[in-house]
Amino acid sequence: MKRLLDLEGAINLRELGGYPTTTGKKVKYQKLLRSGDISNLTPKTLKFLKKYGLKYVVDFRSMNEQEMWPDVQSDFYKVYPDPVYPLKGNGEKLTNVLKQNSDSYLGMIYQSVVLDQHAQQSYALLFQLLLENTEPDKSVLFHCAAGKDRTGVGAILILKALQVDTETIVQDYLLTNLMYENSSDVEKILNDDSKGNKIRNKMNMTKADVESITSVFEAIEHYYGTFDNYLNSALGVDAKALQALRSIYLE
């Protein structure tokens, strides 16, 4: 299965299946998609996504972005407007009192997002829809404009909840930087296991901030003790729901 879905009119559209977990399982294919803007999807791409099983689309963009560049509508999936911004601001206040171990600007933004009450409601809706996606061979797509920051945080939270290790989560995040380079080269790298070292080296040379991912977990653990407690307290995903989530998306 390809990780990069290079489809007409799609931006940074990627498969999240196949990632291993710390428990020996792996994320199912054709259940989770992350993406950038999907306002220009072509009939050919829609045909592919229908066959793929797309059923839910979660749009993290602001209402202004959604009005300016509306998602392509279709009869086989439903679009859920779920803007992460504007933040209430409480997350930024909490971030300011955290001891910063680096000058990670993105890390501070991501910390603000995961701690902000409004953004938490947005990601809570994402998890609610993920839990509704119990039908076999049906998938959820979540996206923003570039598929990097708001979408990136969503992917971080999902993969962590599914017990994917931090290194793999960071690598998935960093793939966005490769996506905006020569896509044919990227596809060759992504789909050739022998080039694993090459992709890691290339990631290390990108502008993306690896610490921005680990700082998310640091902020969550600082205020919530554990990631599971964050899921429960901030996103409304209790132990029973978490077990259900893993049964839906892992194999």
UniProtKB/TrEMBL annotation:
Pfam families: Y_phosphatase3. Residues 121-171 form the Tyrosine specific protein phosphatases domain. Gene3D superfamilies: Protein tyrosine phosphatase superfamily (3.90.190.10). One of its GO terms (molecular function) is phosphoprotein phosphatase activity. Belongs to the protein-tyrosine phosphatase family. This is Protein tyrosine phosphatase.
